[in-house]
Amino acid sequence: MTAGPPDPIPGQTSTGSKRAEALFGGLPGPRVMVRSEGCRVWDDTGRIYLDLGMALGAVALGYGHPAVVAAVEAAARDGGVSSLPPTQERALAERLVTWVPGAEAVRFLKTGAEAVAAAVRMARVVTGRDAVLTCGYHGWLDWCQARPGVPRADQLLHRALRFNDSGDLEAALAQHPAPAAIVIEPVVEDPPDAVWLAHVRRRATELGAALIFDEIKTGIRFGLGGAAERYGVVPDAVVLGKALGNGLPIAAVVGSRDLLDAATRTWISSTLATETLALAGALAVLDVCEGTDAIAHLQAAGARWLAGCHALAGEWPSVITEVRGVHEFSFLRFADAEVSAAVASAAARRGVLVRRGPYNFPSASHAEDDIQAALNRLADAVAEVAASC
Ligand SMILES: Cc1ncc(COP(=O)(O)O)c(C=O)c1O
Fold first, then answer.
1. What is the CA(123)–ligand 1 centre distance, in A?
2. Whose CA is nearest to atom 7 of ligand 1?
3. Which site from 29, 83, 100, 188 is most exposed, i.e. has the minimal number of CB atoms within 10 Å?
4. Ligand 1 atom with minimal separation from the 242 CA
5. Closest atom, ligand 1, to C-alpha of 251
6. Half-sphere exposure of 293 (CA within 13 A, CB side)
7. Is the pLDDT assigned to residue 2 strictly greater than 90?
8. Ligand 1 atom at minimal distance to the Cα of residue 111
9. Are residues 54 and 71 in the same domain?
10. How much distance in Å is there from the Cα of 64 to the middle of ligand 1?
11. How many CB atoms lie within 10 A of CB 234?
């Protein structure tokens, strides 16, 4: 057998969590999509799958939502970009500050990682400090990663906090007594403890550090006020992404005037941060969320999915060891990596894409029947795997 040409995309795809290895281990499963609509995905052989992953949570209303598509088509017909900033930028900013607690100003970027990095840059400008405490995943950029290729000097400037652990925050503050920012995901595997959140808010205020909520997963999905509204804590900035664009590349830092004004005293700018397709798409997302019960529907679908997952875990404890998360996003933990790959592969064979780990993201496009069908197919897949263990 002769070796084929080298893969033109090292690692198979540019989005790590969509690699075949990440999805199915070494086991069979669909490799590429050609089309998506609602909560369904078509692969390159024409097979149709019910999708629970929903593009890593980038899509909350459903793939190809008609209102979003119409807005994008109109924006594309109108040119999409020019040498001047577009009217949609200000329109979207004005809408977002009415929804996000404590917000007065907005800056747009293209990806979640960029937007969290921008918020951290702003906090460093305002405080004149370097250290940052983090909790959760905040993207691939140097400021928050400790991996090959990240300068050691950068790695020394951030310290990861344990979720829901006030003692660990105090230990981190002993190491970095004057942080520029505390950046937290308000929900990681569980909802936040109210005492912990209040502690984080109080310590950030006492220390003069910016409290930044990374709401890339919770934003929009928890309602337009996000986790800040749900948990009654006002951060200095909220970072939005994913569901804001329903699959279009847009992210935003939405926060206090003091913090956001710092963007003008450093350099935070991107050529296509002001293209109109994503801005118009995000405006359509807000229209849908304000004018329909889409978010309530998403939450009901998520509650149904989560309840079904708990029932499955009760039935098959040797396969599913744990179910974690909230209605809006949750995941199953399996006995080991081989078992999780076997379940994901067996589920795909039955026409459902379920993630092996964090997270599944039920959407507003999942009808009750879709959730039930997905649960039934997952149950069959789990039973098959249990029988072969
Ligand atoms: C909480 C959180 N922050 C930041 C990011 C990074 O966003 P992006 O992948 O759009 O750069 C993600 C992505 O999964 C995320 O879940």
1. 19
2. 112
3. 83
4. 10
5. 10
6. 5
7. no
8. 10
9. no
10. 21
11. 16
Flag whether pLDDT at 1 surpasses 60: no
Q: What pLDDT sits at residue 354? A: 98
Pocket (CB within 6 angstroms of ligand 1): 56, 111-113, 116, 136-139, 185, 214, 216-217, 241
Q: In the chain, where does DSSP find H-type helix?
A: 20-24, 54-57, 66-77, 87-99, 112-127, 152-155, 166-175, 194-207, 226-231, 257-261, 276-291, 294-315, 337-349, 368-388
* Co-location of 172 and 75 in the same domain: yes
117/201 same-domain check: yes
**146-171: average pLDDT:** 98
CATH code of the domain covering residue 177: 3.40.640.10
Share of the chain above pLDDT 70, in %: 99
My answer on whether 300 and 235 are in the same domain is: no
120-148: average pLDDT? 98
Question: Could you identify the atom of ligand 1 that is nearest to the CA of residue 56?
Answer: 14
Q: From ligand 1's centre to the CA of 1, what distance in Å?
A: 41
Instruction: Specify whether 229 is located in the same domain as 89.
Output: yes
Looking at the structure, tell me whether residues 275 and 133 fall in a common domain. yes
Reply yes or no on whether the pLDDT at 3 is more than 80: no
Domain residues for 78? 66-291
Q: How many CB atoms lie within 10 A of CB 92?
A: 24
Task: Tell me the pLDDT tens digit for each residue of 349-373.
Answer: 999 999 999 999 999 999 999 999 9
